[in-house]
Amino acid sequence: MTLRVFGITGWKNSGKTTLTEKLVGALTRRGWTVSTVKHAHHDFDIDKEGADSFRHRQAGATEVAVVSDRRWALMHELRGEAEPSLDVILARLAPCDLVLVEGYKREPHSKIETRRLGAKDTAPLSASDPNIVAIAADHAVSGETVPAFAIDDVEAIADFIEAAAGLSRS
Question: Is the pTM value of this prediction over 0.85?
Answer without folding.
Answer: yes
